[in-house]
């Protein structure tokens, strides 16, 4: 998921360089959403991850 976020961030940077403001804003917004979603999934997996049971 972070890979997709990075991809959209790169697309936003390239679109911004070439002057496509609307496309750049959309890609940056989508990258931001994916980044925060990945962070949330990471934190949830840390809290509720698999517990090791030593026997």
Question: If you had to describe this structure to a student in words, what would you say it looks like?
Answer:
By secondary structure, the chain is mainly alpha-helical. The protein has one domain. The chain is built from two helices and no strands. Helix 1 packs antiparallel against helix 2. It is rod-shaped. The N and C termini lie far apart (35 Å). 5% of the residues are buried. The mean pLDDT is 84.
What portion of residues is helical? over 70%
Count of discrete alpha- or pi-helical segments spanning 4 or more residues: 2
Q: Strand tally, please?
A: 0
**Major sheet summary line:** none
Which structural class fits the helix and strand makeup?
mainly alpha
Estimate nothing, just give the exact number of structural domains: 1
Coarse morphology? rod-shaped
Order of helices and strands: HH
In a few lines, what is going on in this structure?
The chain is mainly alpha-helical and 55 residues long.
Tags for this entry?
rod-shaped, mainly alpha, 2 helices, 55 residues
What is the secondary structure topology, with strand pairs?
Layout: H1 2-17, H2 21-47
């Amino acid at each position: 998921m972070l890979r997709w976020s990075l991809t959209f961030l790169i697309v936003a940077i390239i679109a911004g360089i070439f002057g496509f403001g609307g496309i750049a804003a959309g890609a940056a917004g989508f990258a931001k959403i994916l980044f925060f979603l990945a962070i949330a999934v990471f934190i949830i997996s840390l809290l509720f991850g698999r517990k090791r049971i030593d026997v």
